[in-house]
Specification:
The protein has 236 residues and is α/β, with parallel strands linked by helices. It folds into two domains: 129 residues, Rossmann fold, CATH 3.40.50.2300; 98 residues, Winged helix-like DNA-binding domain superfamily/Winged helix DNA-binding domain (Arc Repressor Mutant, subunit A, Orthogonal Bundle). Helix content is 41%, strand content 21%. The protein is built from eight helices and twelve strands. Strands 2-1-3-4-5 form a five-stranded parallel beta sheet, with helices on both faces. Helix 6 packs across helix 8. The longest helix has 24 residues. The radius of gyration is 19 Å and the shape is elongated.
Length: 236
């Protein structure tokens, strides 16, 4: 089955050109001209990847990306390739912090867009295969067993509450992505959300005390000042 792509872009001419090129390259292509239409289509069709313009008439792409990452289940992990006409490097940084998987400035060559799409889907496929093959998540000496709902570091069992375990899994499943406190809370939306997002900081402190070699100098769960947290892909 051909991979399904959804482009959220208000420039109909550009979307038509991209759709023709990607269709000829073996992809199934759909287009939404507004952010809200795009979010609705994403939830109804669950595409393999979203091509997201930063400048949209109803919501900006950063807000759309934030809302995607707050969706339930696998939809929250839909790869996002962000497009923008802006040249400010901060747009790229903020986009990646909000959960975009890659970033391509306009104007772009269709061949580069295709290459980036293929690269993102390869990474996603490898991560998905790993997740489906085993209930275990391993990062260096840290082992998270989703079936047993247990966490070990160097073979030693770590004491976490059920809620803290869910928070840790939400971070580990999105390793390498910076998540806001709201996104972390949304990722465990099956649980009762707590009244204040700063309560996440308390839980993170307790999780760090359990899994970090030095909780005051954390290497596994790193604070991104002013944004949230990122779970390190590479760990000892």
């Amino acid at each position: 089955m051909n991979p399904q792509l959804l482009m959220i872009e208000d420039d109909a001419r550009l979307a038509d050109m991209v759709g023709t090129y990607l269709g000829a390259s073996g992809y199934t292509f759909a287009h939404a001209g507004t952010a809200l239409d795009g979010l609705a289509r994403l939830q109804s069709s669950a595409p393999n990847l979203v091509i997201l313009d930063l400048m949209l008439p109803d919501l900006d792409g950063l807000e759309v990306c934030r809302r995607i990452r707050a969706l339930p289940g696998a939809l929250a992990r839909t790869p996002v390739l962000m497009l923008t006409a802006k040249g400010d490097p901060m747009d790229r940084i903020i986009g990646l912090e909000m959960g975009a998987d890659d970033y391509l400035p306009k104007p772009f060559e269709p061949r580069e867009l295709l290459a980036r799409i293929r690269a993102v889907l390869r990474r996603e496929g490898a991560a998905g295969a790993l997740a489906s093959d085993t209930p275990l998540l391993r990062f260096g000496t840290l082992e998270i067993d989703r079936n047993a709902r247990s966490v070990r570091v160097g073979g030693q069992l770590c004491e976490l509450t059920s809620y803290q375990f869910d928070l840790l899994v939400a971070l580990a499943e999105r390793a390498g992505r910076v998540l806001t406190r709201e996104q972390i809370m949304e990722a465990v939306r099956g649980r009762e959300l707590e009244a204040f997002d700063r309560s996440i900081d308390v839980h993170m402190g307790r999780i760090r005390s359990a899994i970090e070699l030095d909780a005051k100098n954390p290497k596994r769960i790193v604070t991104v000042r002013g944004v949230g947290y990122v779970f390190a892909r590479q760990q000892d």
